[in-house]
Amino acid sequence: MTKLLGSLCVFAAGGMVWYLRRKEQRSRRTLLADLIAALDGVETGIRLTRTPLPRLLVQAAERGGAAAAFFKRVSRGLTAGERPTAVWRRAAVELPLSDPERNALLTLAEAAQGDEESACKGISLVRKTLEESLRQMEKQRMEEDRRSAALCFSAAALTVILLI
Among the residues of 46-115, which ranges form H helices? Predict the structure, then answer.
């Protein structure tokens, strides 16, 4: 009876690891989608309404979603009088993104300080990089889920076999 209960606990732990891994990947995809939507709104605001960037960042933070915390940190830092590049870099480093995605966001810190045209080009380039990353994640999602499930449950089964 004890071995059966221990086996069930090991399998439950394997299932929990698999679930947490899926949840992490889902939250990363949601973050990328929210960043893309927010950057699209910022670019539209710059081009069409000629709204200043600090106000656009506040509006992006008010939209909610996974990227809202990023834009809140940046807008709070700007209202506190900090340098825009330093605030942007600090907020971007805290995001759970891969290195190419983070580097794309970091390059936006310098591009957004220029005139309207350079800011829009920088935002468009970053948005395209993030869209490509999201597209690739969606393409690999099924394979990644299968591989992760196989790894977690195989490790749990091996542990159960070794314990018995």
Answer: 53-62, 68-79, 84-93, 99-111
Q: Which residue has 């506040």 as its token pair?
A: 58
CB-based contacts of 74, cutoff 8 Å, min separation 6? 57, 61, 87, 88, 91
φ/ψ of 135, rounded to 5, equals -60, -40
pTM: 0.82
Residues sharing a CB contact under 8 Å with residue 78, sequence separation 6 or more, in sequence order = 54, 57, 84, 87
Residues listed for the chain: 164
Residue type, 161: I
Confidence of residue 31 (pLDDT cuts 50, 70, 90): very high
Q: What does the block give as tokens for 56?
A: 């656009």
Mean pLDDT of the chain: 86
- With residues binned 3-state (H G I as helix, E B as strand, rest as coil), the percentages for the chain, rounded to 5, are 85, 0, 15
